């Protein structure tokens, strides 16, 4: 019987086990980490106005997303470098995703090749795309993701310019010998720069396309038959533009507080984005600071079709590999199930905005 009951306990365990450079990279945010903290805290400022006497004997957490039915509305956000947390890295994560009945979104910067990840999967894998200055390298990534069997592409739009990440600078973040960005081997862009301080900024500077604009979303949507999502949106007008430029889905995200510090907590901008996308058929996911089932419930009630979690997956992975990731997903899903039952709701579709109210001061 596990003595871990919460995602916070997984974070504490991972913190004890991981080298400081890795823990800080996973845990950290941009600059003063204000958005990082606000992502978490914003859920506490919302109360759940629950119903009673609703017969909640039979409950289901299943949802349809991107044309697929999955058991659990908690998806795995794309995060780089899983082999810094466990030897099997992304293979552990994708096996856990399959057993939990959810989607894994694989990072461009995975430390396992997309072909190997999909081969180990028993559920859907989506591919997160960073657009490289070298468009042929970007096309190659798309073709590899398609050929491997990924079922959607997720274009990350909030990292054209690298943020200031003081923890990584202080620690001189680098990739250890033997760990590399496996999806970029073919395009000859696998190397992590040797620099003073963190190599992350230098890599992004050299490789990511800073000129990314809305017409590039049309370009990507025209390049592939896969559904295209855009990740990193925090405004209604941008969400609407994304839909106009061919996005099938939008991920409301501020990159877990790792890019523009003092950008808004994602749960606070979700209603604006839901409103902007009304009637467009564009699906909505959101991430940032989700650590409790009640956080998930609030996001779903305010109009997200599902949520993603980033760091808690890495904590599970570091603490206990595949079993740790499965346990993180199990704990959060169980908390959501309890929160739904106690709110008088039996299915995700029945979570509605009237359940949520600002906490009275
Ligand atoms: C260590 C780490 C690496 C990340 N790498 C990527 C990435 O490669 N691509 C991407 O689009 N987002 C990346 N993100 C952002 C996550 O996809 C997600 O937006 C964020 O982690 C959600 O917040 P949470 O960690 O509070 O759940 C990363 C986040 C972390 C913590
Ligand atoms: C190799 C440099 C880029 C790493 C990007 C991973 C990421 O998005 C993050 O937030 O960290």
Automatic annotation (TrEMBL):
**Source domain of life:** Bacteria
The entry's FMN-binding residues are 78-80, 107, 128, 130, 156, 231, 253, 258, 287-291, 310-311
List, separated by semicolons, the cofactors it needs: FMN
InterPro entries linked to this entry: Aldolase_TIM (IPR013785), Alpha-hydoxy_acid_DH_FMN (IPR012133), FMN-dep_DH (IPR000262), FMN_HAD (IPR037396), FMN_hydac_DH_AS (IPR008259)
- Span of domain FMN hydroxy acid dehydrogenase: 1-361
Checking Pfam families in the record gives:
FMN_dh
Q: Which residues bind glyoxylate?
A: 25, 165, 255
The active site consists of 255 (proton acceptor)
Entry GO MF terms: FMN binding; oxidoreductase activity, acting on CH-OH group of donors
Entry keywords, A to Z:
Flavoprotein, FMN, Oxidoreductase
Does the entry feature the keyword Oxidoreductase, yes or no?
A: yes
Q: What is this protein called?
A: Alpha-hydroxy-acid oxidizing enzyme
Organism, as annotated: Longibacter salinarum
């Amino acid at each position: 019987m596990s003595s871990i009951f919460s995602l916070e306990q997984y974070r504490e365990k991972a913190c004890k086990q991981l080298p400081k450079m890795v823990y800080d990279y996973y845990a950290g945010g941009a600059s003063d980490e204000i958005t990082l903290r606000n992502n978490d805290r914003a859920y506490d400022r919302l109360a759940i106005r629950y119903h009673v006497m609703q017969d909640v004997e039979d409950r289901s957490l299943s949802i349809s997303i991107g044309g697929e039915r999955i058991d659990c509305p908690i998806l795995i956000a794309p995060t780089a470098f899983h082999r810094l947390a466990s030897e099997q890295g992304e293979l552990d994560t994708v096996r856990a995703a399959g057993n939990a009945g959810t989607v894994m979104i694989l990072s461009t910067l995975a430390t396992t090749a997309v072909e190997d990840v999909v081969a180990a999967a028993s559920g859907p894998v989506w591919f997160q795309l960073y657009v490289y200055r070298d468009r042929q390298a970007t096309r190659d990534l798309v073709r590899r993701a398609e050929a491997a069997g990924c079922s959607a592409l997720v274009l990350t739009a909030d990292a054209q310019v690298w943020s200031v990440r003081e923890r990584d600078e202080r620690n001189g973040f680098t990739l250890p010998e033997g760990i590399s960005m496996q999806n970029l081997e073919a395009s000859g862009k696998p190397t992590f720069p040797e620099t003073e301080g963190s190599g992350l900024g230098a890599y992004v500077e050299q490789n990511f396309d800073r000129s990314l604009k809305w017409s590039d979303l049309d370009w990507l949507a025209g390049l592939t038959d896969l559904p295209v999502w855009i990740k990193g949106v925090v405004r209604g007008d941008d969400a609407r533009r994304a839909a106009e430029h061919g996005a099938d889905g939008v991920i409301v995200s501020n990159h877990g507080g790792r890019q523009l510090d003092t950008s808004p907590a994602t749960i606070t901008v979700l209603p604006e984005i839901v409103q902007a996308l009304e009637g467009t058929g564009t699906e909505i996911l959101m991430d940032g600071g989700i650590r409790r089932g009640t956080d998930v419930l609030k996001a779903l009630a305010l109009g997200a079709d599902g949520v993603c979690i980033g760091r808690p997956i890495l904590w599970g992975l570091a603490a206990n590999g595949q079993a740790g990731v499965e346990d993180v997903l199990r704990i959060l899903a169980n908390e959501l199930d309890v929160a739904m039952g106690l709110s008088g709701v039996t299915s995700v579709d029945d979570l509605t905005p009237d359940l949520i109210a600002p906490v009275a001061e």
